[in-house]
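Tokens in:
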């Protein structure tokens, strides 16, 4: 094989490896209605609540653990570890969680902003 042929083959292999690494890494950004590491999710904000919806095919409530703190929700389950940023502070004790038809849903009440006050 000529050096030009070997060089061309090496470049093609490097390109294949680069493409494979991109697919394995998943998207570099996440956000509302985006995918994070192959998992679809959506954040829906109303004036009083924030609702997080995550596709969790073949999983039930017993397969998942959810943790809420500050401005994020962490969801852990079989082959799943997802951290989703929320648009605002929420009240963790208000969480209403359900898993139905392969969709995990958590509705959270927004934390009332504390304005300046007199001491």
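Residues out:
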């Amino acid at each position: 094989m000529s050096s030009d042929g070997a060089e061309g083959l090496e470049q093609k292999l490097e390109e294949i490896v680069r493409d494979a690494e991109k697919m394995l890494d998943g998207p570099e950004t996440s956000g509302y209605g985006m995918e994070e590491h192959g998992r679809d999710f959506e954040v829906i904000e109303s004036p009083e609540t924030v609702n997080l919806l995550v596709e969790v095919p073949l999983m039930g409530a017993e397969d998942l653990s959810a943790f809420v703190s500050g401005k994020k929700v962490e969801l852990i389950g079989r082959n799943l570890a997802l951290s989703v940023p929320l648009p605002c502070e929420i009240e963790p004790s208000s969480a209403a969680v359900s898993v139905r038809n392969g969709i995990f849903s958590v509705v959270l009440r927004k934390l009332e902003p504390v304005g300046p006050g007199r001491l």
